[in-house]
Fold:
Amino acid sequence: MVTVTAEAQQTIDDYLSRLRSRLRDINEQDMRDIVEELRSHILDKSGGGGEASTIDKVAQTLDALGSPDQLAAEYLTDNLLARAEVSRSPMRILGVLFRWASLSIAGFSVFLSAIVGYFLGVVFVLCALLKPIHPQTAGLWIYPTDGADSTISLRLGFGSPPPDARDVLGWWIVPIGLVVGCGLVMLTTRFALWCVRRYRKSRVSPHR
Amino acid sequence: MFMKDLESETNADKWEVQLRKGCLELAVLAVLRDEKLYGLEILRRLESDSDLIVSEGTVYPLLSRMKALGLLRSEWVESDAGHPRKYYALTPAGKHRALDMSRTWTRFSSSMSKLLAPLKKGK
Structure:
């Protein structure tokens, strides 16, 4: 029977509660499983040999596990890769990236890039789909401005473009929008997964 | 010059870490081949039976991922220690994967050994 000093118990509870708060994206059952498994590991490791788990032994064990942030990032990125191998849903990928974003700058940058990539992809597809409904206003338009540069804009067909604006692609927006939009969504997914794999590879184990 | 040496040493270090990490999944499948074990036992077995010195913070997320992929199944078992432990075992898909990976490993390592043989002689 492993016995734990009150101080050590408090340290374990604090660590696991911080981990739990960082694993919110993982479903409740899996999260409980992860937390209980780690509690069992901490008790076994720090209370080996029939001695009580003291604060020092618990601190050593927690140090070997890494900070709750590092550990949560490992679970989230592993979870993302496992999910991605089963389903490549952008919403799921964004959900996990969002949690990763709250844990590291790398995660934040990948999350922002993924948002931009998916957003542009969706706008291209919507533009293609709305062209037949709003043929006079939806499409890729160029607006001449006062300066030397013109403004280029994807319009979904709401409102009307200024009279001197030019519809660059015309009906070509339908096939081009679909191909470019779907391509952007696919590329963004591949990019996000590539970043996650690189992150996992770059994590050098602290206890080699 | 010193910086260059240091850099190449760090690269060799990183390469070794990557190599060990890359083998981890196969090593976990191998230690679970005919018995069920809990996380700490898996870690100790990896340390005693292989040259892999593994971070605890890496193994538990890996076990969770391998379970999500259907390679492992898990069950909670009450223990004398007063708390339950989560035991892992191979699923049929896990056994299949272990066989596949070990075949690939054997093929790859034997061809690499042939390629590296002259380097050993030259030392």
Observations:
- Chain B has four helices and three strands.
- Chain B touches chain A at residues 14, 17-18, 20-21, 38-40, 53-58, 60-62, 64-65, 68-69, 74, 76, 80-86 (CB under 8 Å).
- Residues 33 and 97 of chain B are 11 Å apart (CA to CA).
- The longest helix of chain B spans residues 2-31.
